[in-house]
Amino acid sequence: MPTLGCVHLTEHEWRARTAAHEARVDALVGPHLERRRAGRSHPVQDFLFTYYSFRPAHLRRWHPGAGVVLAGDPPHAGWRGYTTTTDGVAVGPDEVRRRAETVAWVRDLLAATASRPAFTGCFGLHEWAMVYRTSQQEVRHDSWPLRLGHDGTDAVVESQQIRCSHYDAYRFFTPAARPRNSLTPTRERQRRFEQPGCLHTNMDLYKWAYKLVPLVPSELLADAFELARDIRELDMRASPYDLSELGYTPVRIETREGKAEYVAAQRAFADRAAGLRSRLLQEIGGLADPPDTPDRRTLRRP
Description:
The chain is mostly helical. The chain has one domain. Helices cover 48% and strands 4% of the residues. The protein has helices spanning 11-38, 47-50, 56-60, 93-98, 100-114, 125-129, 149-159, 167-170, 190-193, 199-203, 205-211, 218-237, 256-285; strands at 7-9, 68-70, 82-84, 89-91. It has a two-stranded parallel ribbon. Strand 3 (82-84) and strand 4 (89-91) form a beta hairpin. The longest helix has 30 residues, at 256-285. It comes from Haloactinopolyspora alba. This is 3-methyladenine DNA glycosylase.
């Protein structure tokens, strides 16, 4: 039976896209793999491979996305989620139905986030709250000194209003720092709290993209990875850590000038993320819920 309503790629087209994607990812993950083989780590650049669960080898594998048929003899024919028709190889309807719950949850989260105005007054204080009133042995990156020392770091936290809306940042706050946050984000209220100016919300576009593989094209996944990589650099430059030895100039958010620098960068990232969020919603928006899909309000978080 032919596959209708799909984009068709010739063997030449999908091979070219595969090669381009693999070369792009090799350049992105190569330094990390070299460090891993040498037993070395990097507090900024390794984050996307340690905090997030998607392996470099999986990131390198090219997927066309749902609704794309590959002609010829693509390796996808042997991959989970794909089916072979008289037209070629494509993500199968069974895979779309199997992923319906995840699609619905992510779609609702992204749409809710996009509906809110961007808040850009947090100044990256989540990283400071993670080391508030700790010893050097208790900080997350204990190999790197605090730029203002422990007392200076605590003083910055105590002099600022903290307004972190992202649960996966808030949950790493020290016990002493949590009451200082003006919000109390929880996993259950994630859709109510996430907003498009948050650095971690925008980094997580990479997570939602890889959780939807193979339904989304790998080019979009790689774009989300690059955005998360760039945001991570700002996140750590604005952190309390002194990373000058690694070539990172600090964004001194304890000063008026540093706050302005941070907000400008945060707004630029919010603009980039808005485009990616829209593309991701467009990719999954056409994957209608099967008739037996439960009400999305009761869906579990993927």
